[in-house]
Amino acid sequence: MTTAAARLLTLAAVAVPLALAACGDDAPQRTETNYCTQVGNHLADLNATAIASSSDVSRVLAAWRAVAATAPIAIETEWTAMVRNVETAATVDPNDPASMQRVADTARESEPAANRVIAYTQQKCGALIGSVAPTATSAAPATAAPATTGAAAETTTTTAGAAVTTTSA
User: Fold this and answer.
1) Which residues is 63 bridged to in the sheet?
2) In 87, 123, 143, 158, which residue has its Cα 20 to 30 A from 113's Cα atom?
3) Whole-prediction pTM
4) What are phi and psi for residue 110, nearest 5 degrees?
């Protein structure tokens, strides 16, 4: 074996394992196949409508973040908006009108992103996130507050395709 051939063989023997090790540490793949797999793995949590405890909130938020981490570049920005929407909803205080308004405003702002995510996911993965196909709605004024007459007030906020209803006295 020549010296040049020996050097190439040694270089290949060192480089191949290093390259394989580097591939093992990559961030989640943003392929359509991986995205659809993650959507399927987390679909129940992406569509969760009954969130009763802090562990439910943590689980659902983790599911949204996991799927967002694999979203193809075509909808990466929309998923960022959706995760921000769910994070905001996770902090809502149903007894604080400002908190409720913040959630409503974030939901309205992220509606185009939600519609794009829903349509893309339905088209590419055959899965529906939320209970209905995307539709446009008009934005209500940010200063509007629910009227109360001394009785319990019920507020419904749509977050990422799921309606969340809260009742406050």
Assistant:
1) none
2) 143
3) 0.64
4) -95, 0
